[in-house]
Amino acid sequence: MSTLNRIAVLSIAAGFAVMVALFVATFSAILLVGGDGTAPAFTHLVLRAMSVPGVMLGVSSPGVLWVGGPFWGAVAAICVFALLQVVQALR
């Protein structure tokens, strides 16, 4: 397996891990909402971060949370790919 292929596989794995972690964080944040409708700051932060990509892409309200995970996962994959390319170039 060439170095570029290895870097691509690691980047995709990191992006997928970030996507899964964000989905878990989103649903755990939703479960933190109390019976009286109050929510901790963590819930507001996570839901705001997950809704930003959906709003930028013009997704309707029910689908906003489903766009956030893959978007931030792709961003993480691209960042890891670029970082590993820099590390490889510095070797």
Give a quick precis of the structure.
With 91 residues, this protein is mostly helical. Helices cover 80% and strands 0% of the residues.
How would you sum up this structure, described in words?
- With 91 residues, the chain is mostly helical.
- The protein has one domain (3-90).
- The chain contains 3 helices and no strands.
- Helix 1 (3-31) crosses helix 2, helix 1 runs antiparallel to helix 3 and helix 2 packs across helix 3.
- The longest helix has 29 residues, at 3-31.
- The radius of gyration is 16 Å and the shape is elongated.
- The relative contact order is 0.18.
Key terms:
single chain; 91 residues; mainly alpha; 3 helices; 80% helix; elongated
SSE topology:
Elements: H1 3-31, H2 41-57, H3 64-90
Query: Average pLDDT, to the nearest integer?
Result: 86
Low-confidence stretches: none
Helicity level: over 70%
Helical stretch count? Answer: 3
